[in-house]
């Protein structure tokens, strides 16, 4: 074996070999339940970021684990067309070329977009390969490929014919920059400092007036009513009357509605049905006029009168000034509130009345809510069900149309003769009345196609073998930030079209934050490019550092030192494998006839590790599981067992020589199988350099809990503890290096035989020259250093390993200095003036010093006692 694992060269070679040999494809066995994950499709515009690295490593851990368990295992990769994100990229490209979307037209724009997708769309998938993702690339899908597009059109037609898709005017979240509606889950809210303007609305034929408060005074141009609570005694007499709308110069009705919270603010709320979703609902109940004052670019339209053409902020300043001049402005007060912006371009979102396509959600979500309540789909951890239920139980109709060109074009056609709308999954151009049909210009929300992902990628609406065998999926791995975006939509879609929830488990991963716990962002400059990390440390180190100690649903901190530590662990494993590899030519036996106590000990420890790792993986505790593997390899195998068997390996004539080699190889093979889901590359390379049975670790089986030697496990644990105590005693007595000592042992009879069989490694690891067995404690040399255990008492002759006189002189001087410091601290605390007048921190510091020096004195005196002073 090479001195080190050359990850920069070997990772790519190993992956190509895996893919070439078809190791990522499932071995279909109709008698067995498959394990299936559909990859959350990254945007074609995406570049691998640290969040991708985490979520795809988690998926790969589960995929590789279930593959080793012999289950037919399928991980389907794919990418999302990402309507807005991709369209923005292409528009930017055209801008640099001096062109616009409108100038070149729809067909040319879509040609440009497909070319852009072909050029850059494969970048993310090549990076996922770099991460070691063992997906079945032969089944790779794209949300706008032929099959997925067929599914989208089929669903739209079915829902329309069922009366669940309709077109109508409703309030949407409008992005004036992208000029399209976006879903509520795509709006990013941020608290901003602003003002609350209090405006006076006089009552018709009266000296009374109402005061309304607003953060957006420009919207008063679209006010068509004022609402009060019907139980508010202050305003009962005003219900049915009219209030004067300043600036606009007209009267608007006063209505009673329970939407207005009793006792909150002034108790009167201005109603702008075209620019506030709550006002829109109130307006529907009271038949209020809907007046849109905005153009699609966010400027004010002709309904704004003299303010037409201004931006909302320009109009706000002018309107506030006019309200002051005319005496209608009561007061202005500072006010902080959440302002929504587009997740893609960060433009402030405008609530906007628009003629759009919607899906009626009430009927669709009911079975999806019940499916989670009945554990047909289970969230891991369970607490995230609350997020799901909160969204689903308060859901609004879903606006599915977007004023974009890139995406699935809405299959609705308008007749230029009779005006009828025809929905058809196949392209048509003639109405039944003979008129010409023109297709709707808009496209569908990206999430419409993503909602169908778990079954559309398996061939639906066609009843394929893949669909029959691999649906529903076993699990989904995703972030808590898209439970409402995506998870909810997939669940109700799967139930509606397949009759089954799309996955049994939803594993929620947290976000990756920086070492200080901050969200990674360009503004903070704390982002991490995983490809840079891979280049410096290797893929395995990055994967392990992200997964180690994580728990489902909790955020992860990216700590560079953890990556370095993970690389060091890979090196530790590599060096252990190199050590074992040097002896493998001498390994001839299939299985040894007789195992030594340390062999039985490590094999039992291995079985225990297999058991706990398997249990934790089955409970989705992948962070705990990998820590158990790490501890076993580093502590028990490398630091203990290898050291235990070295005395046997240095003597080929030893009858247990070959048994030691067999145990090393067997244990390390099993250990790398356990570790393989987390660190696939180095485990493959180690496996291929051991005595192995398969052409790749990818073809291996999950290790079995084969060996259980409880007596040897208990006894050797006891010996290891004794060795640690010997080493600690030597360290306390400043014995450096490997100077050996003689020992006397008093040991219980039930442990004696195992102890004698283990004497080789005990002597080596405990730096013991000779061991003399005594029948009872009375026979022990009282000048030897004693270490007492439950069944073993050992007495160490330190005279040959230490210059006692020199050590005593050193300890005596050390004791003198400690007493001096202890007396000084105690003297300070006995001084009433110091205790009463000194700052509390200083007094507490002196108290801490007393405790510290008392502890040091005790240890020095114990060391001197050990030397028999």
Throw out a few tags for this protein.
869 residues; 4-stranded antiparallel beta sheet; 17% strand; globular; 44% helix; single chain; 4-stranded mixed beta sheet; 27 helices; 29 strands; alpha/beta
Which band does the percent of strand residues land in?
15-25%
Name the strands of the widest sheet in spatial order: 6-5-14-16
Q: Report the C-alpha radius of gyration, rounded.
A: 37 Å
Q: How large is the count of helical segments?
A: 27
Mean pLDDT: 92
Helix content: 40-55%
Biggest pleated sheet? 4 strands, antiparallel
**First-last Cα distance:** 54 Å
Structure class: alpha/beta
Low-confidence stretches: none
Q: What general form does the structure show?
A: globular
Query: How many beta-strand segments?
Result: 29
